[in-house]
Input
Amino acid sequence: MKKSFSITLTLVFALIVFVGYAQSNTIKDYHEQYRPQIHFSPKGHWMNDPNGMVYFNETYHLFYQYYPDASVWGPMHWGHATSKDLVHWKELSIALYPDSLGYIFSGSAVVDSSNTSGFGKNGKIPLVAIFTHHDPKGDAAGKTDFETQSIAYSLDNGITWTKYAGNPVLKNPGTRDFRDPKVMWHASQKKWVMSLAVHDHISFYSSGDLKTWNKESDFGSKEGAHGGVWECPDMFSMKLGDKVYWILIVNINPGGPNGGSATQYFLGNFDGSKFTPLDTVTRWLDYGPDEYAGITWSNTGSRKVFLGWMSNWLYANQVPTEIWRSATTLPRELSLVQSTQGVVLASRPISELDEIKTKTTVLQDLTLQGERDFSSMISGTKSQYQLKITVAELKDYTVKLSNSDKEEILIGYDKENDRYYIDRTNSGNSNFHKNFAGRFTAPRLTGKNESDITIVVDKMSVEVFADGGLTTMTAIYFSSKEFSALTILAPKKISIRNVAVTGLGSIWK
Output
């Protein structure tokens, strides 16, 4: 995907930042201030969109937009990391570098098990990456065809990649925003289907060999949110009971429900050529300010695991980290659930997170009015823990994380408006952007008169999964020191079934 600002100005700024970084900093082995301990982040430099996420030979591959020469956005590469469990990650060498066709923007990767591309040799199954070439010279010159789609392949389990000599495989018909191909195999029609972001809609293309693509249809110019450019689509099918639904994920920047970048999605049917939505409801996969460019892993069967970039284009280049910038969200398992908004996608932290869980402390059957201190429950967790609260009768409540510098982040439920919220107005350093501090809200999507909320805390972030993941919110923050205090506030008497805190160990060995 493309950040909409002057590339020339950005590169000058990047050079300044890099020189300062090289002179005064070294990578501190994942222990710098603000460094996440349970989320993936590169050892150094800039990252944004997850790319090419594919599961192959019992290994999860995560590629991502990466600039290896500075900690701000610049000429895009594909960084690469792998994992056996979606929790512990090994950062590898850069997979794809810019070339004469341009920067390497976002895309996807597939397992070509039938060797439709012909890239396979000596019985080796090829992995094929499909990505956007972005020509910065064409962009600067005001052309409209500077983004094209290209492919590369790997015969050594994704370690090294060979770009196809016939690139680009899909030329631009003449639009400035023509990028982020997500490709899937349509089994019943035995063809590859590409979802491509084209300014304010999605175009679908098909191919038998990943090299020659034919236009099928368009969707979305009059559907969904349109506060900004559509980017990073993803399409797949899931079942709820005996019914099959097709899900089309579309990221948008700006235009999110709480400002800036966000991920919307549509439910419908796909007949191999055309996507038909079930309704005109705009659904959001995450209502917080800091989840964007989210897509799912390919080749995982019926299991759908989602991952997003944990930032927002409003301020991603300005956040107060130096050695690295940005991390991913936790991987999240998706499911379809019936809600007050109809059928929706629910998100939960993956079960593999159990591998790093440590001690669990539980308090049950509490009656609370006013403010109660639960700080002893998070003592020793180093701001790496999972907090679960179940409220028996739904009323206003607030979870407050704070420190001795009077910095705090508030997470709670507003009964009058029937909304969850995250408030980071006083969470710490926010002077790098006028829109960073604030209160962000999300609707409640169940009619039950009780509430369960799971909050995953990690150094500089909170991820909130309410009502079984029907409502999800993500927010980052930059406090001067860890939030060592935990309190729960309720203006009216409230019954709490349980409060549970589980420590989470660092994923970095």
Observations:
- Helices lie at 7-24, 136-140.
- The chain has a mean pLDDT of 94.
- The two ends are 32 Å apart (CA to CA).
- The first helix runs from residue 7 to 24.
